[in-house]
Amino acid sequence: MYRRFFKRFFDIIGALLLLPFLVLEIMILGPFIWFTDRGPVFYNARRAGKGYKPFKMFKLRSMYLNSPDLKNPDGSTFNSDDDPRVTPIGRIMRKVSLDEFPQFLNVLIGNMSFIGPRPKLYCYDKTLESFDGEKRKSYTIKPGVTGYAQAYFRNSITQDEKFHWDAYYADHVSLWMDTKILWQTIISVVAHRNINTVRSNKE
Question: Confidence band (pLDDT; 50, 70, 90) for 193?
Answer without folding.
Answer: low
